[in-house]
Amino acid sequence: MVNKPLVLVEVRNGTIREVSFEALAFANQLMKQGGEVTAALLGSDVSGLSKELFEHGATKVVHVSHPHLKEYTTDAYRQALLQIIEVEKPCTVIMGHTALGKDLSPRVAMKLGAGLISDITSFEQDEQQTLFIRPIYSGKAFEKKSVSTMPSFLTIRPNNFIKQHQPLKKNRCTNIVDLKVDIKELRTVVKETAEKMSGQVDLSAAKIVVAGGRGVKSVEGFAPLKELATLLGGAVGASRAACDAGYCDYGLQIGQTGKIVTPTIYFAVGISGAIQHLAGMSQSKTIVAINKDPDAPIFEIADYGIVGDLFEVVPLLTKAFKEILT
Ligand code: FAD
To answer: Is 105 labelled a binding residue?
Structure first.
């Protein structure tokens, strides 16, 4: 029975990541008969962010401030999270299935001998048990799993659970605890962080993704895709073939060995639809495929298919959207 989940909150550039709000909504859905949802907020000065967590379903916020927690390092976060778990004794620890969650959750779970279910997209619950559903075989199938250790660890796929926001009522009491943690000498220290794609919408969290493949043919070929993405407030992504060919940065790669995205609309432009690519985008709400080959496998999973030359179709789409939006 889930009655005391703890959500590890991710903060980037002083802002709480959307997936943490989704994790709070997920935690609340899991607790059938009430309980306490604790949000663990780690950083060097994060106290100003608590209000948003209460507004998104936390009933308690644990502040953990330490200079070593300013930037994420496995070493520092692992030590801090173990101490939070020792004090808070949650039944379940929930994180986003993000680079941070994928790195941290197995390390802490292993240290505690606890079970971990990763990349959860939904769950089923009855009186006896909760079954967590996650894609396997690159999204070709789904498995249902339960976990019985205390605590257990869960990571949720971003963009799958809908965040819940309720403005804080004036008299609602908010339980904030400051927890001191002892972080021993670190083996790794972050000296500098370089933003590769400054100004670009975060691909993993984007609601609209315009992804290009080998069919885009060059760096310059991505320009119309960028124009469409910018117009729609979305992000540009790519297949591995496009990254391998040097048309764009590997940070944009979507798929089994790249990022997993679940936007509302995914434009697959000049992408054939290899299983390794589908692994990263098949859970998108609506898929629009643009390909000159009517037999391209991407059309099998597309909701809308446009057979044609992408260099003609994409500018036409941009023009049409411009007319609608302006
Ligand atoms: P292609 O398969 O070459 O397809 C190009 C498409 O563009 C074709 O369908 C063609 O008809 C179309 N096209 C060409 N010109 C035009 C035009 N003018 N207008 C419209 N359409 C046009 N791939 C990933 O994407 N992500 C991964 O994470 C990933 N991980 C992998 C991991 C492993 C272990 C392995 C073995 C492979 C992985 N791959 C991954 C590679 C994957 O198998 C495919 O090779 C890759 O996805 C193909 O990319 P693509 O669709 O862009 O290229």
So the answer is: no
